[in-house]
Design brief:
1 helix
Length: 273
């Protein structure tokens, strides 16, 4: 009887518009998911929903406990979701969630963790998940970990299988063993192309000194994931001990440990006492 009811529920949800997709709605409200006072039309112990491509291939699935079925949304506890991409899977978990039947989108909240089969981990307080677009968005603080790189910032959008990520502001990146990069944002991370682009008030710091610029492109070794080169553009400033160099552009070669200044270079040397 329970299985029959579950099947009928899924059928009803699809018939009431769960396939419709709309743009926007990326700002998360401050109130808790439990703040709504709508009276549920139905209450069930478990909820399961699946999505398929036009070719009949399973694309995603969503499960939750203690579901309250309202007119437009389904409220869930202990949410577990999964997407099936061509090159890997994405797993999503959270304490609470909502499935919007009209938007066809899921809002996850409280202890949200997203992991991929390639080893990327994203954690945040709340996010929207659009299974059709293979996209997650949030305006909250977010931490992304992969290989030897940990990036954190406020507000993010992650594209298919979290291979491309954009952090909006207040960006800080730690790269093992001892490199730190900060910027006002945004930061664009591309794991497939092994490149990160930092914008506005960018600063790189390691044991050898600090580099400042308006924009920086950081290239990583495809296998070792260590920094290969850094290209700095706009108001470049290199600080090494008491010495400061200025230029329009600069190239940092990590293997050689050398910085090449381009465009009106100027060196200021402060003699030691």
């Amino acid at each position: 009887m329970g299985n029959k009811f579950g099947f009928l529920l899924i059928l009803v949800l699809f018939l009431t518009g769960c396939g419709n997709k709309k743009e926007g709605l990326v700002s998360l409200p401050e109130e808790s998911l439990s703040a709504d006072i709508d009276t549920p039309a139905q209450e069930i112990d478990t909820f399961s929903l699946e999505g398929y491509t036009q070719q009949g291939k399973k694309q995603w699935q969503l499960e939750g406990k203690s579901a309250d079925v309202l007119e437009d949304v389904v409220k869930l506890d202990r949410v577990v979701a999964k997407t099936y991409g061509e090159e890997g899977e994405i797993n999503l978990k959270s304490d609470k969630g909502e499935y919007d039947k009209k938007e066809g989108r899921v809002r996850l909240e409280e202890n949200v963790v997203v992991t991929t089969s390639e080893g990327t981990k994203l954690t945040t307080d709340a996010l929207f998940w659009d299974a059709q677009k293979e996209q997650v968005t949030t305006d909250r603080g977010v931490v992304i970990e992969r290989d030897n790189l940990t990036a954190q910032g406020k507000g993010a959008i992650a594209f298919p299988e979290i291979k491309q990520v954009k952090l909006n502001e207040e960006v800080r990146v730690e790269i093992a063993p001892k490199t730190t990069i900060t910027c006002s944002g945004p930061l664009e991370l591309d794991y497939e192309k092994n490149i990160s682009v930092f914008y506005n008030n960018v600063e790189v710091e390691d044991g050898r000194g600090r580099i400042f610029a308006d924009r920086m492109e950081v290239y990583f070794h495809p296998k070792e994931k260590a920094i290969e080169k850094i290209f700095a553009y706009g108001n470049v400033r290199l600080v090494q001990g008491e010495n400061i160099s200025y230029s329009d552009e600069a190239v940092y070669n990590a293997e050689e440990g050398k910085v090449t200044l381009k465009g009106n270079p100027r060196l200021v040397i402060y003699p030691k006492d």
